[in-house]
Amino acid sequence: MDVLDLIKTVITSVTSVVVALIAAGYFQKYKKQQTEKQSKTKLVQQIQKDELIHFSLREIRRKYNVDRVYIIQYHNGGQFYTDSSMQKASITYERCSDGLERLSEKYQNILVSNFTWYNSKLLKGETFFNDVDEDVDDITMKSLFRSYGTSSHCGLPIYDRDKHLVAVLGFDWVFSEIDEHMLVDNQFSDEIKESMVQDANSLKTYLI
After folding, report:
1. pTM of the model
2. Average pLDDT of 143-153?
3. Which structural domains are found in the chain, ordered by start?
């Protein structure tokens, strides 16, 4: 190989390396831009979803003249020494009457095992308590409701497509009284129960 061919070979090799480096740099830059774009898209989608949920809860609160309406979501929260998953729950969304203490600021990462009685009733569709003092026979739950001034409570389960319990739509009456048209023989009417079930199901789209 003469000197000219050698120079051509060197130039070609260097050019290839430069092009490869430029291409690699461009690819990394493009990949970063796409990642940032996807991140922004997800953030925007999350904000839109949160706005829809809060709007829905506001309308639900007005519909039933309830002082507090909220969503409890179930989630994993670490592991025990046995490697079994900790099942926890947190209040993720809440709308309250003015002057009422927000539960979402306190109820985060709560062990589900602390509410076995309530969850059992929930799965049976039996969490409609017009009078907490009379209708709740679990001392722990009754004390909990009393500590926040809750006189009446309803809880509606929210299931995913595979029928797994993923959330609860909760209603608490504290300052306000339940409208008489919602009650039959001092208990929530079947019509109101069905209406609440529909409201819970309408939130499923945003939560799953």
Report:
1. 0.78
2. 95
3. 65-207 (3.30.450.40)
